[in-house]
Amino acid sequence: MTFAATVLTLYPEMFPGPLGVSLAGRALREERWSLDAVQIREFATDKHRSVDDTPAGGGAGMVLRADVVAAALDSVEGQGRPVLAMTPRGAPLTQARVRELAAGPGVTLLCGRFEGFDQRLFEARAIEEVSIGDYVLSGGEMAALVLLDACIRLLPGVMGAPTSGVEESFESGLLEYPHYTRPYEWEGRTIPEVLRSGDHAKIAAWRLRQAEIDTRLRRPDLWERHEGARVRSPSGAR
Ligand code: ADE
To answer: Which of 109, 116, 218, 225 lies at 20 to 30 Å from 54 by C-alpha?
Structure first.
């Protein structure tokens, strides 16, 4: 099954962009996913082909019109695919949501510019608002590329060796353990001895311990959630 991505944007030339190279690019050519970039402006109705207008209530910037964006959206053969709008006001994107999306038929993504979309659009078309982080981009296109990249790498056949999904950062609720490779000694620094022991049980225990230490120090927010989940479900207790 092909993962079908449709992107609605004022800058279709930004796609596939970086997703045309490396693993995602090869997967695109192999038709493991498809991409359709739709120009929102083609659905403007006035002679100036305007897609935006001044904010109701006043203030800076411009707001994308609900009627124009809805017309663009309604032209897409959605086929039951979820519609997501990329906006800093959205729910934070998580690896769990990425995994759900990647397991489905695809996504339709709305990319805003300016001050954003007329809010009535989201209510009228049951659109999920998604943010990729607590910072503001100049538009939703980069966020859409990020979301697509995260989904595409999970599609069957895209990554060389399929990950168990357990060891990877965020899947287990922990950051991933640190990695090392040759040379054994570099600038006076060596590789942890346990990694050269060949004792796979000992290595697994060391990696888990490192993941726990790093998560606690670097991401106390993740650590708290992880520990909370462990306490609530004793089957996960160690
Ligand atoms: N558009 C602008 N900023 C964004 C963000 N942080 N996430 C998603 N879409 C955006």
So the answer is: 109
Q: 3-152: what CATH class?
A: alpha beta
DSSP conformational letter for 194: G
Note whether 146 and 107 are within 8 A (CB). no
Range 188-214 burial, b when 16+ CB lie within 10 A, else e: eeeeeeebeeeeeeebeebbeebbbeb
Which amino acid type is present at position 33? Answer: W
Cα 130 to ligand 1 centre (Å): 8
Domain ranges of the chain: 3-152, 185-236
Whether the full predicted model's pTM is greater than 0.90, yes or no, is yes
Single out the residue of 82, 92, 90 nearest to residue 112, CA to CA: 90
Give yes or no for residue 92 CB within 6 A of ligand 1: no
| Global ipTM | 0.98
Distance 220 CA to ligand 1 centre (A): 24
Distance CA 27, CA 34 (A): 9
pLDDT tens digits, 135-160: 999 999 999 999 999 999 999 999 98
Q: Please, what is the angle between helix 22-29 and helix 141-152, to 10°? A: 70
Relative to beta strand 33-39, strand 128-131 is unpaired
